Amino acid sequence: ATSTAVTVTPLRFNWSPGVVKVWLYYEDVAGTPTNRASLNVTSLTDSGVGIVGINYTTAFSTANYGAGKGQSSEAGELTSPAAGSISFRTRNAAGTSIDANGWFMASGDQ
Description:
Blueprint: H1 10-14, E1 20-29, E2 32-39, E3 41-46, E4 51-56, E5 66-70, E6 75-82, E7 85-91, E8 102-107
Antiparallel strand pairs: 1-2, 1-8, 3-4, 4-7, 5-8, 6-7
């Protein structure tokens, strides 16, 4: 993972823990999260206002992986990480749960 003298094939590079294994751009229109573009995402789960679950096609080896989420001006909180899924809650500046568009990505060992 640190050598500068060794060539790595794309398939081997994919197994590196530092490579993004999941990414998602989603839109939440009228309370229904919709996958607009993604990698390694099987489905989205709507668990209430501002709460979305992401289910992975290929699970991580553990629930200990790096993940990030964001959108324009709202705050996001990642919750319930598991090897095969994660949930998040989106809130506005006042702390109220809201449905919003956004993105998500995760990297780690699969």
